[in-house]
Amino acid sequence: MERHLDEHAKRITDRAVDEALARIDGGDQLSPELRKLATQQLAPWAEKLVRFLDETLRIPGTNIHLGLDPVIGFLIPGAGDAITSTGSVSLLLLALKERVPTIALLRMLLNIAIDTVVGAIPFLGDAFDMFFRSNRRNLEIIRKYRDDPKAKPGAADYLVVGAGVLLAIAGFVIPVVIVYGVGFGVLYELWRTITGS
C-alpha cells in the first residue's frame, strides 16, 4: 500500500511539474505554490547515487547502513575513493545547475576536502567513510539551498566547483599512490633483498 501511495504522489508531482513547464514555455508567471511544487523534486539520480554510495547495505539487526565506498575501500584500497570522487563531482555539477549559492558550494567543498584528507589514510579513511558521508551531506545542502530563479552561477561558483573537482580527483589519486606506490616499492625491495640483486 505504501508503494502505491508513493507512486500516486510521484504521478501528482510529475503532473504538476509538466504543468509548470508548460506554463513557463507559454510565458506565464508561476504562482509561488506551483513553483515550489514544480521544483521540489530534485534529480532522481542524485538520491539513488547517494544511497548507493553511502547507504547500500544494512548491518543485520541494526539501523546502521554502509555504502559501497567503505566496503569496496576495505577490499580494494583506493577503489572506494574513486567511486566517491565520481559522486562528489556529479553532486557539485548538480549544485551548480540548481543555482546553489556560493557559500553553500563552499560548504560542499569543505565536506569533500575532509573526505579527501582523511580518506587518503588507508583503512582508517574507509572506516571514517562509514560515519562521515560527504555525498549525503552535500545532497542535503543542495536540497536546502537550491533553485533561486534569479541566481546565475558566477565566476566564484565556477572556481569553487573547479576546486571541488580537483579535490575529488585528489581523493582518488592520493590513496592509489600511497597504497600501490608504497606497497609495490616495499615488495620490490623485499624481492631485491631475497634475491640479492
Overview of this protein structure:
By secondary structure, the protein is mainly alpha-helical. The protein folds into 2 domains: 1-41; 43-195, no CATH class. It is built from 9 helices and 2 strands, in the order αααββαααααα. A hairpin with a 6-residue loop joins strand 1 and strand 2 (65-66). Helix 4 (68-75) packs antiparallel against helix 5, helix 5 runs antiparallel to helix 6 (102-119) and helix 6 packs parallel to helix 9 (155-195). The longest helix has 41 residues, at 155-195. The protein starts with a helix and ends with a helix. It holds the Pfam family DUF4112.
Query: Shape, please?
Result: flat
The structure class reads mainly alpha
H/E series: HHHEEHHHHHH
- Whole-angstrom Rg: 21 Å
The overall pLDDT average reads 74
Low-pLDDT sequence parts:
23-28
Major sheet: size, sense and barrel closure?
2 strands, antiparallel
Strand ordering within the main sheet: 1-2
Q: How is the secondary structure organized here?
A:
Layout: H1 2-25, H2 32-39, H3 44-54, E1 57-58, E2 65-66, H4 68-75, H5 79-97, H6 102-119, H7 124-129, H8 134-145, H9 155-195
Antiparallel strand pairs: 1-2
Helix pairs in contact: 1-2, 3-5, 4-5, 5-6, 5-8, 5-9, 6-8, 6-9
